[in-house]
Amino acid sequence: MNVAAVLVGSVLGVLIGHRLQHRTRDLVTDALGLVTLLIAISSALTVGDDVLSDAVGDSAPVLIVLGAMLIGGITGSLLRIEQRLEGFGAWMQHRFSRGDSESTFVEGFVSASMVFCVGPLTFLGALSDGLGRGADQLLLKSVLDGFASIAFAASLGWGVAASAVVVLVIQGLMTAVGAVLGDILPDAHVTALGATGGLLLVGVALRLLKIKQIAVADLLPALIVAPLLVQLLVVIRN
Tens digits of per-residue pLDDT, 151-207? Predict the structure, then answer.
């Protein structure tokens, strides 16, 4: 779906993208931000699932998410994940932007690939799909990428369509990782990971709605910390 959205959006961008008004694009982004918020709340509320409470106790699930966000956020901030990702994208664009017509294809390919594959929704959506928790986040990302590809292709041309290959490889690998984790991690650990991911999606929604530019990428280590905290409490309780 994501690859198809990028391809269709690229074709529309090359053919008619320049006709879309800026006001229309902003309205669509706001609508997608609201839908992202709805999906985020649904995911975050799984913190109250019985499978997690039975494993760690009734009062621990929220504390696990809180601890994961704090520890993950501090870790990501110290590692400067968001800054490094943005810096890598800027370096790639500078590396291939030579100002001539021949580099337009490559610039479109690199720029679109970075936007489609570096954002937190890439990791959250693909992992959720691989874990068997549904593809709704990935479908939402497909819509976002579809409209983004229209805007990119309107100015950078067919190189944007080529980025669909990168989307297929990166998200395919992340989905495979999620599938492996789904086979290894117990249900309580997967639930904690999903609830933490839902909270990160709230940050994505706030960015789409232009309410606050939360450094969501810096919070990504929380997805690793949450299952570890569950395991720690399970060991303590036993």
Answer: 778 777 788 888 888 889 888 888 888 888 877 888 899 889 889 988 988 988 888
pLDDT in tens, 66-124: 999 999 999 999 999 888 877 766 676 666 555 544 456 776 776 677 678 766 678 77
Q: How far apart are CA 228 and CA 236, in angstroms?
A: 12
The Cα–Cα gap between 65 and 23 comes to 37
The percent of residues in the chain predicted with pLDDT above 70, rounded, is 89
Q: pTM, whole model, 2 decimals?
A: 0.75
61 C-beta neighbours (distance < 10 Å), count: 23
Query: What Rg, from alpha-carbon coordinates, does the chain have?
Result: 19
- Do residues 47 and 230 lie in contact, with contact meaning Cβ atoms separated by under 8 Å? no
* Amino acid at the residue 12: L
Residues ≥6 apart with Cβ < 8 Å to 177: 126, 127, 130
Q: How far apart are CA 103 and CA 142, in angstroms?
A: 27
Q: What long-range pairs does 14-19 form, CB within 8 A, spacing at least 24?
A: 14/153, 14/154, 14/157, 14/158, 17/150, 17/151, 17/153, 17/154, 17/155, 18/154
- The answer to whether the beta carbons of residues 3 and 167 sit under 8 Å apart is yes
Task: Characterise 157 by phi-psi region: left (phi > 0), alpha (psi -120 to 50), beta (else).
Answer: left
